[in-house]
Structures
1.
Amino acid sequence: MKFQSTAIAVLLYSIAATPVLSNPIQDVSRLEARQSATSDELKNGACKEVFFIFARGSTETGNMGTVVGPQVCSDLKSALGDSVVGCQGVGSPYEATLADNFLPQNTSPTDIGAATTLFDLADSKCPNSKIVAGGYSQGSAVMDGSIQALPASIQNKISRVVLFGFTRNQQDGGEIPNYPASKTKVFCAVGDLVCDGTLIITAAHLTYGANAPAAASFLVQQLGL
């Protein structure tokens, strides 16, 4: 039965793997303006006032994905300026494989460690920078696992976190354990069954690009810039 459930979930994920445009005209213009699916501004660039660290969903390309990560990055830059905001996706050794969704933390310790490495880097390389973070689908579990285990000295530097299609929404009560609920915003679309504690992927799970402006606004509010 476990194999059958896994196969069904993987099949449904494959069927739903084409992004859904909630407003085709508006979304196409946003797709044209958004950033690449890969962003390494923390790893390869100079320090900025704000860094957005994001973990993509399973099977997404690059290190930011395409469903919502680049859109939030673009909206943050539009609000605060390119010179103020740098974006960094969680890359290797996080490979965003489907199989890791079925592990106890809905991702692997290695995947979680990939995010933790970036939080550590932001703290050591750019100690005066403010940090905001986000994750989508399996990436939300990556952020959940990483942030709750960070030392207080680093965790306190994370101003706010946005989670889309939070795969641990039911398990963790709609928040990140050991991190203030007031600093976390969870986006769960109507009909997205992963928010109900399953790993069944429906079309609703692919609509979070529409929530990027609200997510960026939430992140900006705490920064005081």
2.
Amino acid sequence: MISVIIPLYNKEAIIGQSLQSVLSQDYDDFEVIVVNDGSTDRSADIVHSITDPRVRIIEQENGGPSKARNTGVRNAKGEWVVFLDADDELLPATLSYFDGLIKTHGKANFFACPFYVNDGKSKVLYWQCRNGFVKNPFKAHFLGLFLPRTGTCIYTKELVDSCMFNEDIRRYEDFDALFRMYRSATIYLDSRPVMVFNASYVSASKKRIDISEDFLGYLDFNGKCFWERLSLYKLFIEEREYYMEQVKELYPHLFYRYDLFLIYKIFSNLKKSKYLWNLYLRLSGLSLFKHE
């Protein structure tokens, strides 16, 4: 069974559409767990009005997306878990496609696929990939070749149980959990898009007042491999402006890591040249992916 876990907070305009994208799947062996995280609008009423027995709703006081997802995991009956945000939609036949991947690539406990971004005006494919087991997920993540997000991945419940969400984090909480999964998971990447990310409904990704509610406040470089350190440093460089004073206090040494900054800039500039970037990807492809 697949458990689809949806954290819900004030999404009355879209939650019905999101749920319908799951309930209309051409696959039967699934459940939907909606965790109402203290919504103050009609979101929960809309879910309660759905009589499909595959849908369960759990009520809790507002505790953030991490707590809501953890509540869903603790109540999940499935052997496999999909996290879907309340404002996103699964594409048709996604669950049956995931089931086929599971049966075909039995060694994997984490599958990831691309997705579309819908900004309300157009829908574009956010990233493309090649099929295969990911040999070095941190390297692929740093290079932007592996961009999993909620709704595009399916994991064994055993893996999720071992990497539960940090309930203090409300922004980039998925990065925190994913980075811990990267260290031990067997990941298969497939090129078929499976989800639509509805960007016009996004609210939770806005910066927090306190950096302790952002994964940026928990960066730990100790004992990490080279590519994990680079992935953490990339997040630091790209997000530090939102919390500059707090970042200076937490990570004064990172402002002087010219070695990491040089590597970051080399790859950033490499991406600006389509020819050089494509050449690099062809040369590095064998080191990023492996076959069964």
